[in-house]
Amino acid sequence: MQTPMYTRYERARIIGARALQISMGAPLLIKTSKIDPLEIAIEEFTHNKIPITVKRK
Hints:
This protein is an all-alpha fold. The longest helix is centred in the N-terminal third of the chain and has 16 residues, at 8-23. It is globular and about 35 Å long. It has one domain (1-57): Eukaryotic RPB6 RNA polymerase subunit (Alpha-Beta Complex), CATH 3.90.940.10. Helices cover 46% and strands 0% of the residues.
């Protein structure tokens, strides 16, 4: 599966939204030893596990 190309703004928005979900108690999508929600969200993003899409016009 090919990774979609995101702008730096889209990437920041996706990771930020996922980090907020994790900090509010959402289940993790990968196994990790990290504790910080932002680090977990970045790791999920690099493994293409975040179920958030970007809709462009």
